[in-house]
Design a protein that fits this description.
The protein is an alpha/beta fold. The chain has 19 helices and 21 strands. The two termini are about 55 Å apart.
Length: about 525
C-alpha cells in the first residue's frame, strides 16, 4: 500500500483543488505546490511550501522551468524498496514525494478556439506537468498520481478509511495518467502535423492519432468467430449513439450497434416526427407524420417482412399507442429520445428487446454540436481512409428543375423527403416515396437499374401502389433504362444529382414519359 506523507500539487484546472488540499492537510500530508496554485492555497489559508523554496531553485523562463529538478523527480521516482535508491536519496537530501496531483495546460481547449495562433498553441504545451505525471505513473507502487478532479473524492475517502492507498488504486490511477498523457501528446501531434511548410494548415494532418475509450466488450463481432469491442470518441458528440442509455434488454451485439447507428443517424436528420426501420444497415421503412404511432405505421407498411427483427428509431417520445403497435412485432432494438411510463411498461413484458434512450442534440454551428461525426474513417489493408462526413443538407432553393413538366409544392416536399432517405441507403440507392413515406427501397446493387427493379418488387410485395410516386437516386442515371423502369411502375417525379454524360438522353426520357425531373448537383454514395 502507498502511504502518503507528502503531495505535490500543480494544476491548471483548479476545480475541486481547495477541497482536496484541505482534506490532505487534515490527514497531516505536507503540500508542495507551484506559483499560481500555491498562491491560491495561501489566499485560502492552506499551508503550502512552494516548489522553488523546496528545491532552492526559482521558477524561471515565464514558468517554463519550475519542477524540472532532481529533488522533485528523484522524490517521485525513487523506489522505496531498493536500498541503493534510498541511500542515494538520503545522500542528496531528496525526500519522498508520495502523491502527484497535476492537470495539464489546456492545449486541447486552446487549439479549439477559432482564433488560436501557432504561438498560442506552443505556449500551452505543458512540459513539466507531463514529466511529473509520467514519473509518478511509472512508480505507481509507491506514488499516487491524480490527473482529473473526478478522482479526488474516491482517493480522499480511501485515505480516510484505511490511511493508505491500495495497489489496485494506485495502479488504476497510473493507467489513467498514462492515458491522459497519450491523449495530450496525440492532440499536440495532430495539431502541429496539420501545418504545411509555408505555415498554412491542412485539413488532414501528416499524422493522425485516433483516441477512443472502450465502452464494453462484445460477445462477438459481425460473425461468432470474430472478437469485438465497442469504443467511443474521447469527446463524443451530444446526441450520438455512444451517449445512449440502455433502459432494458440484452447486451447490444456488434450488428445491433452498427444498425442502431444507421437508424439513429437517419431519424434524427428529420425535423418532422419520424420513424426509421433499419435492417442490415439499410432503411427498409421511413416515414414522417403527426405522431409516433402514425409514423411507425407508415414506415412499417413499406416492407413488413424486412422489418421483422429490425432496428426501430424515433425522433420523438414513444407513447403508449406507438408502443402497443411496435410491441406486436419482433424488434431487436428500439431507440427514441424518450418513452412514456406506459410505453416502458409495455416493453417490459418483452425483456429481450433492447430499449435505448438518446437525447436529441440541441443543434449548433458545427457537426459536433449537431450530434454528427465531422469525419468518417474506413479501414483498409494496413491503412485507413479518412474523409469529411457527408453532412450536406439540401433545401428547396437548391433544386434545379430540368424537365418540361413543373412539380407541385407537394411533389417538391416528397422529393426532398425521398432525397433525405436515399442519403442513408447503401449505393446504388433507389427510393420510391409518396405522402411522407417510403414505398419501395432498392439498396446496394451493382447497377442502378437492378436497384430500381428491387425497389419496385419491394413495393409490389407490400401491396403498395407506386402510381404518382416520387423517386430519389443517390447518383445520376447513366442510361435512360432506369427512367423507363420507374415511369412504367407509375412514378411521376424523380430527383437525382445529374451530371451523367447522357444527361440529355435521360432528360429526354423523363419528358417523353411526362415526368418531373429535378437535380441536386450533389451525390450521396454510401458504401
Amino acid at each position: 500500500m502507498a502511504v502518503i506523507k507528502r503531495a505535490l500539487i500543480s494544476v491548471s484546472d483548479k476545480s475541486g483543488i481547495l477541497e482536496l488540499a484541505s482534506a490532505l492537510i487534515k490527514l497531516n500530508i505536507e503540500i508542495l505546490s507551484t506559483g499560481g496554485t500555491a498562491k491560491l492555497f495561501r489566499d485560502n489559508h492552506i499551508a503550502v511550501t512552494e516548489v522553488g523554496d523546496y528545491t532552492g531553485f526559482p521558477e524561471m523562463l515565464d514558468g517554463r522551468v519550475k519542477t524540472l529538478h532532481p529533488k522533485v523527480h528523484g522524490g517521485i521516482l525513487g523506489r522505496r524498496d531498493l536500498p541503493d535508491h534510498v541511500a542515494t536519496m538520503q545522500a542528496h537530501d531528496i525526500p519522498n514525494i508520495d502523491m502527484v496531483i497535476v492537470n495539464l495546460y489546456p492545449f486541447e481547449a486552446t487549439v479549439a478556439k477559432p482564433n488560436c495562433t501557432l504561438e498560442d498553441a506552443i505556449e500551452n504545451i505543458d512540459i513539466g506537468g507531463p514529466a511529473m505525471v509520467r514519473s509518478a505513473a511509472k512508480n505507481w507502487k509507491d506514488v499516487a498520481v491524480l490527473t482529473d478532479a473526478s478522482q479526488y473524492q474516491a482517493v480522499i475517502d480511501e485515505l480516510n478509511s484505511t490511511g493508505a492507498l491500495a495497489e489496485k488504486t494506485t495502479f488504476a490511477l497510473s493507467v489513467a495518467a498514462f492515458n491522459r498523457i497519450s491523449n495530450y501528446d496525440a492532440a499536440i501531434s495532430d495539431y502541429l502535423s496539420s501545418f504545411n511548410a509555408d505555415g498554412t494548415r491542412n485539413a488532414f494532418p501528416a499524422q493522425t492519432n485516433g483516441r477512443f475509450v472502450k465502452l464494453q466488450d462484445l460477445r462477438y463481432g459481425e460473425n461468432p468467430h470474430q472478437e469485438a469491442a465497442f469504443y467511443r470518441d474521447l469527446y463524443p458528440a451530444p446526441g450520438s449513439l455512444v451517449t445512449a442509455t440502455q433502459l432494458q434488454g440484452k447486451e447490444l451485439s456488434y450488428n445491433n450497434i452498427a444498425d442502431a447507428d444507421a437508424a439513429w443517424e437517419a431519424v434524427k436528420s428529420f425535423t418532422s416526427t419520424a420513424c426509421v426501420i433499419v435492417k442490415h444497415a439499410n432503411p427498409c421503412g421511413v416515414a414522417v407524420s403527426n405522431n409516433a404511432f402514425e409514423a411507425y405505421s407508415k414506415a412499417f407498411q413499406t416492407d413488413p417482412s424486412s422489418a421483422f427483427g429490425g432496428i426501430i428509431a424515433f425522433n420523438t417520445t414513444v407513447d403508449k399507442t406507438a408502443a402497443e403497435a411496435v410491441s406486436k412485432q419482433f424488434v431487436e432494438v428500439l431507440i427514441a429520445p424518450d418513452f412514456t411510463a406506459e410505453a416502458l411498461a409495455i416493453f417490459s413484458a418483452k425483456a429481450n428487446v433492447r430499449v435505448l434512450k438518446i437525447a436529441l442534440p440541441k443543434g449548433g454551428a458545427t457537426a459536433w454540436e449537431q450530434g454528427r461525426n465531422s469525419h468518417d474513417i474506413k479501414r483498409v489493408g494496413s491503412g485507413i481512409l479518412i474523409q469529411t462526413a457527408d453532412n450536406h443538407e439540401i433545401a428547396e432553393s437548391d433544386l434545379k428543375i430540368i424537365s418540361a413538366k413543373q412539380p407541385t409544392p407537394a411533389q417538391l416536399q416528397d422529393m426532398l423527403f425521398a432525397w433525405n432517405v436515399a442519403k442513408y441507403v447503401k449505393s446504388n440507392a433507389i427510393v420510391f416515396c409518396g405522402n411522407g413515406m417510403t414505398l419501395g427501397v432498392g439498396a446496394g446493387q451493382m447497377s442502378r437499374i437492378d436497384s430500381t427493379k428491387i425497389a419496385i418488387i419491394k413495393a409490389q410485395n407490400a401491396g403498395l401502389s407506386l402510381q404518382g410516386s416520387v423517386v430519389a437516386s443517390d447518383a445520376f442515371f447513366p442510361f435512360r433504362d432506369g427512367i423507363d423502369a420507374l415511369a412504367a411502375a407509375g412514378a411521376s417525379c424523380v430527383i437525382h444529382p445529374g451530371g451523367s454524360m447522357r444527361d440529355e438522353e435521360v432528360i429526354a426520357a423523363a419528358d417523353e414519359h411526362g415526368l418531373v425531373m429535378v437535380t441536386t448537383g450533389i451525390r450521396h454514395f454510401r458504401h
